[in-house]
Batch of 3 targets.
Target 1
Amino acid sequence: MITTTHAFGTALIGQTEKALNAILDRQLAGTGITEPQWVTLTLTVAGGGAVDRAELIHRVAGATRLSPAAVAGRIAELTAAGFLRDGGDGHVRVTDEGQARWTGVRNAIGPITQGLWGDLPAEDLATAGRVLGIVLDRAQALLVA
């Protein structure tokens, strides 16, 4: 186990985010899904597999900082790839192929994240979650100001 100590700040947050994205990118390689598409697919699956299109665009834009038009483009790409479909009723639905692709990546990521923080004390994880949540809330407030 690596036991180096890092000062909390933008460098640590940025390096952590880049390392985690690199891990995700490895898992997405060969799936036909990009990271922004992954977020879109994940939020659709998390929404029960059928999500109001406008709500999905809002959620993905908030999570990724992409414009609504860019998010609509990711939905269109996932639809063209057969991972999502337009339900014709204002809802976006996950296809069987989209669900299978999402499940495969999630199953690959699970043991990785378990190895990264699964053995850390619950109190440490709660503290990290609170601190990062506060930083995120403040950063998002600055972006809308």
Target 2
Amino acid sequence: MTKSPKPTPATPAPAGERLSKRVAQLKACSRREAEQYIEGGWVQVNGQVVEEPMARVADQTVTVDPHASLMALTEVTLLLHKPPGFDTLALPGEANKRVKPAQQLLQPASHWPQDASGQRLLKRHFSKLSAAVALETGASGLVVFTQDWRVLRKLTEDAAFIEHELLVEVQGDVSADTLQRLNSPHASERDTLPAVKVSINSTSDTTTRLRFAFKGAHPGLVAYLCERNGLPIHSMKRLRIGRVMLAQLPQGQWRYLMPHERF
């Protein structure tokens, strides 16, 4: 006699209701607006901020900040001081033994404590970020991640007109003739290489620090110019993109783009 299969036990229904539904009732608003209030950090459950609309609540106390405003849900731009060894354009999901995405450094714990932007840190600020400006994996310095389509368009469509400034430490002294060659490409290269301004920043017993300025990102350009002139590179750091400076931002930390800052 064939045995009847055992009935599959029913999955118990989740307890309570979605937080977004509760907030929609409290604010007399649409479910989408309720989700925006929650993602904006305006909602507390038993006194703790909860930013996940799908969180479930039963008899907990749910409150919405009386100053809550959907107008404050702006798209943000994050500035990171990338350490050497991280890939600027790689996505976090591409991480492996050979690839370390710089975007994975954007965490609440690495937020610069001296950030003066006044921006409230929210979980939603770490999603849907785009990196539009490349930087060599071996270099350190300023990189930009943005949710703002206006910033992304500026950095891509106007890339050829935005100046980059880098500090490059090379082995040995840099003579006046070498400096002249760095600033004056060969006649055959004038149509293929961007205009570059190079100056000596400082010197030591064994190395020289050079400032490079040119328009556009041009990964590999500095390495090419230094190699052609017999200058082994010790380190490379991007100090500026357009009018936005790296300044005192520590390596491995990030801050928000200030409201008055423009590339």
Target 3
Amino acid sequence: MSDLSVSPVHTDPTLDGDHERMTHIVLEGWKPEEGDFVAAGPTVVEGLVNGTAVKALCGKVWVPARDPKRYPLCPTCKEVAQSMGWKVPAF
């Protein structure tokens, strides 16, 4: 099971305006059956603290800054997470 984190979005002109108003899932890394945790990129916390961009499962790239509980979950992120057998956070 992978560690998942959810974070809000900023405008990306390559996606429609609805992506601005959704909560996205960011894969921060995974732990193999044997071995140490493997980072997949910047974490949501890094993004919030350092202004580092993160990438969602749907491909959205942004710098987190909003409360994800205020927005509905991105259906593409949800579909990707569920197809991998991951539990999707409830909002």
